[in-house]
Write a structure and sequence with these properties.
This protein has eleven helices and 15 strands. By secondary structure, it is of the alpha+beta class. The longest helix has 22 residues. The termini are far apart. It binds phenylalanine (PHE).
């Protein structure tokens, strides 16, 4: 195979002097954590989607927003930057901040990369969820791959001014004025204020739906090349303000070039990891990539809205089995409780691995597997062994089990 060829998402590309992707990063493409049933990122996506499905219906009673969560993260610079009217010299294009595949392609740095093409396809209300890539350090709160959910909502004059008595309201100035802090040159102030109200109201309601009714939030003025005016939403978590999304009134130039120059709209992009970390108490962003059942299984529950993540140990386990002849009235729960009492948090898991009845005596034998693991350190064989003996003895004394050697 040619070392100058890079394979990403089933396609091949020629490496060149723009290439910054690495094999480690490429291996993340296609994992689609946001589409894995029960994964916390998928749960967040579903809850936001549910909010939009429930809150916004069209005239026929169907969901207004259409949903896209399977668009390839391999995009052109045209999609990621130019289509969004990002200036050629804008800092967001820096080689040091992006995963370029080569001079023509990159891994999207935000889901906004799909705004233009979807508007051009004729959509006026949609959600896009996907993995996004930005070169960054790796620590508990930074990882070079994360997930965003993007929303776009466009309005015709009729839709926007529906509830207004004044029939002379318009989206656009008859002769475009200058861009000000408040608005783009083409828009009327009344149209901008109504869309701003819709946007802020929608997002705060959505966050309350995710978190709780008394959630504290605040809007901060922001700047993006493809929206004006723009805002970021911060929510209060454990006494601190955390930024969770960017948003704004969509660039008229962008809409016009996508064939929707007769409409006005808002867009926002929200980071799913941030929301999931806050909602489920997940302390480290790297956990989202864990294939450890001790992480994943915590979200496989009937009602995931109440999940609070319980940290698990990074130290190795020690595994030992115990077999007993059991009295008739005995149940396994008696043994599980006893193990908790004797060993406390040093036991991670107890499971019944074998059960059989002696053909003559009709006594039942059960074998339990005990996983010993500490949250604080690597347990020694002796420490686990002592604990194991002590569990066996106590089970004999208190539950009348007879140990099989
Ligand atoms: N794409 C922006 C980001 O990743 C967020 C954003 C989306 C801002 C849509 C405005 C409108 O930071």
């Amino acid at each position: 195979s040619n070392p100058d060829t890079i394979f990403v998402d089933g396609r091949s590309f020629q490496r060149d002097d723009m290439t910054t992707v690495t094999p480690k990063i490429i291996s993340r493409v296609g994992q689609n954590l946001h589409n894995q049933k029960h994964h916390p990122l998928c749960l967040i996506k579903e809850r936001i989607t549910d909010f939009f499905y429930g809150a916004y219906l069209n005239r026929r009673g169907n969901p207004l927003f259409s949903v896209y969560d399977n668009i390839s993260p391999v995009v052109t610079m045209q999609q990621n930057f130019d289509s969004l009217t990002t200036p050629k010299d804008h800092i967001s294009r820096q080689k040091g901040d992006n995963y370029y595949i080569n001079r023509d392609y990159m891994l999207r740095a935000h889901t906004s990369a799909h705004e233009h093409e979807l508007v051009k396809a004729g959509l006026d209300a949609f959600l896009v969820t996907g993995d996004v890539y930005r070169r960054d350090e790796i620590d508990a709160s930074h990882y070079p791959v994360f997930h965003q959910l993007e929303a776009v909502r466009l309005y015709t004059p009729h839709e926007l001014f529906d509830k207004c008595d004044d029939k002379n309201l318009r989206l656009f100035e008859s002769s475009p004025g200058c861009r000000t802090v408040e608005k783009q040159g083409q828009h009327t102030l009344e149209a901008v204020k109504l869309v701003e109200y819709e946007l802020k109201n929608t997002l705060v309601s959505c966050m309350k739906h995710l978190f709780r009714e008394d959630l504290e939030s605040r809007w901060i003025e922001a700047e993006f090349p493809f929206t004006h005016p723009s805002w970021e939403l911060e929510i209060k978590f454990q006494g601190e303000w955390l930024e969770v999304l960017g948003s704004g009134i969509m660039s008229h130039q962008l809409l016009d070039s996508a064939g929707a120059g007769d409409k006005i709209g808002y867009a926002f992009g929200v980071g799913l990891e941030r929301l999931a970390m806050i909602l489920y108490d997940i302390p480290d962003i790297r956990l989202f990539w864990s294939e450890d059942e001790r992480f994943l299984s915590q979200f496989k529950v009937q009602d995931p809205t109440k999940v609070k993540f319980k940290p698990f140990s990074k130290y190795p386990p020690l595994i030992q089995d115990l077999s007993f002849w059991c009295p008739d009235e005995y149940t396994s729960n008696d043994f599980y409780d006893l193990v908790r009492t004797v060993a406390g948090d040093l036991v991670e898991q107890v499971s019944l691995v074998d059960e059989f009845q002696h053909p003559k005596t009709e006594r039942t034998s059960r074998c339990y597997r005990i996983v010993y693991r500490s949250m604080e350190k690597t347990l020694t064989k002796e420490e686990a062994g002592d604990m194991h003996i002590s569990i066996g003895r106590t089970a004999q004394e208190r539950l009348g089990l007879e140990m099989r050697m």
